[in-house]
């Protein structure tokens, strides 16, 4: 299930899939939670709140409490700027949120669990432990 104790930063798309009852997301997150390896960016928290319906509030808040939440620090912001600039020079424009999530993973040593692999072109940053898809 996990990659040898590797901590995982869960991207918003996977979080949404879990909240919508997708089995692959459940199979991914339950072992990470049991091993205390699941992290989420504060930006994903923002994105979840932005898209949340009022009747989903309790379920969403319970879900978010299961994670260790990664803040945006000066070190993360600096790294995110470098990522953005590097890819922009190569002709690829990434979103600010994706750059910050990638920088959080890089600075904190996490892999990113996402279905949006094109949002994270950095080599070696993606979590490959998606079960049963």
Structure description:
The structure is a single chain. The chain has a domain at 8-71 and 110-119: 5'-nuclease (Rossmann fold, 3-Layer(aba) Sandwich). A four-stranded parallel β-sheet has the order 3-2-1-4. The protein is globular, with a radius of gyration of 14 Å. The model has no long low-confidence stretch (mean pLDDT 92). The chain contains six helices and four strands. The protein has helices at residues 12-19, 23-34, 42-51, 57-65, 74-89, 96-108; strands at 8-10, 38-41, 68-70, 111-113. The protein starts with 7 loop residues before the first strand and ends in a 20-residue tail after the last strand. It has 133 residues and is an alpha/beta fold.
Q: Average the pLDDT over all residues and give the rounded result.
A: 92
Number of strands: 4
Distance between the first and last residues' Cα: 13 Å
Task: Name the CATH superfamily assignment of one domain.
Answer: 5'-nuclease
Our count of helices gives 6
Low-confidence stretches: none
C-alpha Rg (nearest Å) = 14 Å
How much of the sequence lies in strands comes to: 5-15%
Order of helices and strands: EHHEHHEHHE
Name the overall outline. Answer: globular
CATH C-level label of one domain: Alpha Beta
Q: Architecture of one domain, according to CATH?
A: 3-Layer(aba) Sandwich
Strand order of the largest sheet: 3-2-1-4
Helix content: 40-55%
The biggest sheet amounts to: 4 strands, parallel
In the CATH scheme, what's the topology name of one domain? Answer: Rossmann fold
Structural class: alpha/beta
């Amino acid at each position: 299930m996990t990659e040898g104790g590797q901590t995982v930063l869960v991207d918003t798309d996977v979080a949404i899939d879990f909240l919508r009852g997708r089995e692959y997301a459940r199979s991914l997150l339950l072992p990470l939670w049991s091993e205390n390896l699941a992290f989420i960016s504060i930006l994903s928290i923002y994105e979840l709140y932005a898209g949340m319906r009022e009747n989903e509030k309790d379920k969403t808040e319970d879900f978010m409490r299961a994670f260790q939440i990664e803040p945006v620090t000066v070190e993360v912001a600096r790294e995110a700027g470098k990522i953005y600039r590097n890819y922009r020079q190569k002709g690829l424009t990434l979103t600010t949120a994706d750059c910050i999530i990638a920088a959080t993973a890089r600075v904190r040593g996490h892999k990113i669990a996402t279905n949006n692999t094109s949002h994270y072109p950095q080599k070696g940053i993606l979590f490959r432990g998606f079960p049963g898809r």
